[in-house]
Amino acid sequence: MLLGHEVTVLDNFFTGSKTTVSHWVGHPNFEMVRHDVVEPFMIECDQIYHLACPASPPHYQFNAVKTIKTSFMGTLNMLGLAKRTKARFLISSTSEVYGDPEVHPQNEEYWGHVNPIGPRACYDEGKRVAETLTYGFQRQDGVDVRVARIFNTYGPRMNPYDGRVVSNFIVQALKGEDMTVYGDGKQTRSFQYVHDLIDGLICLMNSDESRPVNIGNGDEFTIGEFAELVREIVEKVQDEDGVKRTRRVNIVHKPMPTDDPQMRRPDTTRAKESLGWQPRWTVRMGLEEMVRYYKAKMAEGSL
């Protein structure tokens, strides 16, 4: 909308909330429609950003069949819409297609190491088949497609209780609760701020790159290191605002979930060379923004 486009958003609010887009309500170029993409939707459009699917492990494991249906049927319906309207189609795939990788960092040529029947398979394999379907429509019907493999992303308006590591750590630290690390904390992740992700998706949509593209931040942390960084930033924000702490929160360890990847870092060479895109936000910068947002929500009683 800031670029002058008319935007129609479809959401069934299975995991999302209207508050994430409430600031756009009333804008003349914005329309919000409650709809589940597992059912067809008719509209005239030029570009389709297919972002629908639960991405938090507690959510997608809670309803595995729904997750698979969204990845397959939702993608099928949106590709059908793209075929009819001749719209360019972008699917939000995921770094989870690489599974527990044996190659590090992961580039787009890596086929992955995924457990097809484990508790995470509904999401991992759902996204893999969605990519297959996307390229099937490209080859068979000439649909103009883009595939974004998104790595761990965080930012304000993220559901604080969706079970993801960034929101978990921040909420626990702000509330003075022990921060929970699963396993020994040596597993690694790379985190990108939401502004960088959005810039990357727009760059990809408007590029000529039809191959899969990793969208992520190459700065890699062990989960133990990341927990310490979040604790440090929360304490910094609290000190600046004059918040008195009764104690320093502890970092505690619990058993590792099944099939949790041991390392994850994107090779973003293709994004840099083909899109001219690279992250602009450091992890520290993004975390400070998110901590302040959650702290404000806590002060008003909505967190």
Automatic annotation (TrEMBL):
GO molecular function, one term: UDP-glucuronate decarboxylase activity
Places the protein is found: Golgi apparatus, Golgi stack membrane
Keyword Transferase: no
Sequence ranges of Basic and acidic residues compositional bias: 261-273
Catalysis: reaction(s): UDP-alpha-D-glucuronate + H(+) = UDP-alpha-D-xylose + CO2
Highest taxon of source: Eukaryota
Membrane topology: Single-pass type II membrane protein
A UniProt-annotated Pfam family: GDP_Man_Dehyd
Pathway: Nucleotide-sugar biosynthesis; UDP-alpha-D-xylose biosynthesis; UDP-alpha-D-xylose from UDP-alpha-D-glucuronate: step 1/1
Cofactor annotation: NAD(+)
Signal sequence annotation: none
GO BP terms in the entry: D-xylose metabolic process
A single Gene Ontology CC term: Golgi cisterna membrane
Its EC number(s): 4.1.1.35
Domain NAD(P)-binding: 29-290
Location, primary (coarse class): Golgi
CDD domains named among the record's database cross-references: UGD_SDR_e
Keywords, ordered alphabetically: Decarboxylase, Glycoprotein, Golgi apparatus, Lyase, Membrane, NAD, Signal-anchor, Transmembrane, Transmembrane helix
Main EC class the enzyme belongs to: lyase
Region (Disordered): 254-273
Family that this chain belongs to: Belongs to the NAD(P)-dependent epimerase/dehydratase family. UDP-glucuronic acid decarboxylase subfamily.
Protein name: UDP-glucuronic acid decarboxylase 1
